Amino acid sequence: MGPLLYITALALLANISTTLANPIQQEPQSSRPSDSVANCVDYKISLTVTSENLVINTPQWKNDFELIDYLQNSSAKNANVTFHPIGPTTINVTESVSIAATFCSPKTPSASKQDREKTVLITSSGLAYDSRYWDSEYNPSKYSFVEAAVAQGYSVFNYDRLGVGQSQKVSGWTNQASIQVEILASLIQLVRNGNYTGPVGKAKSIVAVGHSFGSQITNVLLTKYPSIVDAAILTGDAYESIPYGGALLEETIEPRIANQLDPKIFGELDTGYLTFVDIYAHVNFFFKAPFYEISAVQYAQSIAQPFALLEFLSTAAYSLKAPEYEGSLFMMAGEFDIPACLGDCVNTFRTQNLTEMFPKSRLIDTYILPGAGHGVNFASNVGEYYGETWGFLKKAGF
């Protein structure tokens, strides 16, 4: 999401220690379509994470009435003066976590593509989704970024962020950006060194790919560790300060406590995790007519994941300027993306200054997907954005 939140917080200084356990390797995924071009292997990766986390100052809500009261307080015009739900106090937290990931590479690498499979794209989903945002089971020939990337000869390391999908669940009152950034940094180093990469071995080049919150943590990665990747692709993201933008986003999501809205599915989560009140709130936040199929929306709703509000808020603690990052950068969003641009990415992209954000980047490209909303991977014209992405990667030398 674009940096629209106006929460004052300390910059986080986080560190991570990684315990590399023996990989749990399974057979190539049987759920892939018969015509899939990808050979995929699932892993469970054990990490020990130590991070300096922001402390939440607001009482933990016990029901949706208390959640709504919080949303009203945080959305008030003077909330930046009167309401401070997180920080500036921090606390060091160390915990062992298990991250689920899938590595996909071409079944038959092409000699003409000159070891392109050793360029690994590491994908981070945004809030409300797990790794299936990048690897749709619905009409994968059209909507799976993984299938499209592997068809171009690249490999993809696609993982579930902490708290979603098959990765370990932690409290929604502690899960935040600082932890997610360090997990991503650790995964990148593991892949760089040839761990969890199936038959490909050591990666020659790493491209970090994010959507929304996944773009935010990728951006922070470039700020903290400017040489950790060779290129970055930030989707569903933009740089523009819009008054009360964060408050508008909170109201647009129409969140409810996940374990109370659907205790059968989300009963294991605590009250710190929220989700869309219904499919129409999901559409309001992620889609724009007429550039979506209702069946694609229904699939997206079926895989929607609860998110921790603290994840949403804590990204504002970071500076997103990456003055030492020298790699290539591709930023894109849907034309009518509400979270990134409040529905006007044409003007937002025209006015944002990416050379100020990334002054040493060797190549900066942007693209706006016509007619699309926030969830570009499920836009009906998604193929246009995929094509622009491969064009960028080839221009950057990958």
From TrEMBL:
It holds the Pfam family Abhydrolase_6. Keywords: Hydrolase, Signal. Residues 1-21 form the signal peptide. Gene3D superfamilies: alpha/beta hydrolase. GO terms for molecular function: hydrolase activity. This is Alpha/beta-hydrolase. Coiled coil: none annotated. The lineage of its organism: Eukaryota, Fungi, Dikarya, Ascomycota, Pezizomycotina. Residues 125-378 form the AB hydrolase-1 domain. It comes from Microthyrium microscopicum. The keyword Hydrolase applies. InterPro entries: AB_hydrolase_1, AB_hydrolase_fold.
